[in-house]
Amino acid sequence: AVVSTQSTGESAHSTTDQVIRRMLIAEDMVLEQKTVPIGVLLVIFESRPDALPQVAALSIASGNGLMLKGGKEAWHTNRVLFGLVQRALEEFCPPTAIQLITSREEVSDLLSMNQFIDLVIPRGSSQLVKSIQEAAGSIPVLGHAEGICHVYVDGECDPEKARRI
């Protein structure tokens, strides 16, 4: 995870401020479509600590600041993963570019700070997404309708039983 996150940090310099399309729309007037960061993301995820390094890598690669809030069930794991991510990215961005939020109260406070948070991304149950959308006020929320449930099925498992899960 550390090596992969480091290579993502290295790519951050080449993924932002890139011209995707350029079009002459009038004499001496050129319209450009460029890749730019969104700003500061607040990503709230439930008990899926694997989301932490993935989201951190994508955020830094796209030039965004990041605040992460994981589920309380994975608090210790999230803290360890956060430390690894910070160590991996220390030569590519300031340590404050990624922050770990530890309480629901902090999330509530942050959701009232639309001048500092540019996008909220809740990842989890429909109830989590709905509650964040209601609390976010004027901050845009990138929600989803339904989540994906991953299930590992051993090769010796009865396929019919697995389908019912």
Features:
single chain, 165 residues, alpha/beta, four-stranded parallel beta sheet, globular
SSE blueprint:
Layout: H1 2-15, E1 19-26, E2 29-34, E3 40-45, H2 51-61, E4 65-69, H3 75-89, E5 98-101, H4 104-110, E6 119-123, H5 126-135, H6 159-164
Parallel strand pairs: 3-4, 3-6, 4-5
Antiparallel strand pairs: 1-2
Helix pairs in contact: 1-2, 1-3, 2-3
Describe the structure.
The protein has six helices and six strands; from the N terminus they run αβββαβαβαβαα. It has 165 residues and is α/β, with parallel strands linked by helices. A four-stranded parallel β-sheet has the order 5-4-3-6. Strand 4, helix 3 and strand 5 form a beta-alpha-beta unit. Helix 1 crosses helix 3 and helix 2 packs parallel to helix 3. 23% of the residues are buried. The mean pLDDT is 87.
- Report the biggest beta sheet as strand number plus sense, adding barrel if it closes: 4 strands, parallel
**Whole-number mean pLDDT:** 87
Shape: globular
State the order of secondary-structure elements, H for helix, E for strand: HEEEHEHEHEHH
Number of helices, where a helix is a run of at least 4 consecutive DSSP H or I residues: 6
Q: What percent of the residues sit in helical stretches (DSSP H or I)? A: 25-40%
Structural class: alpha/beta
Query: What fraction of residues sit in β-strands?
Result: 15-25%
Q: Nutshell version of this structure?
A:
Helix content is 38%, strand content 21%. It is built from six helices and six strands; from the N terminus they run αβββαβαβαβαα.
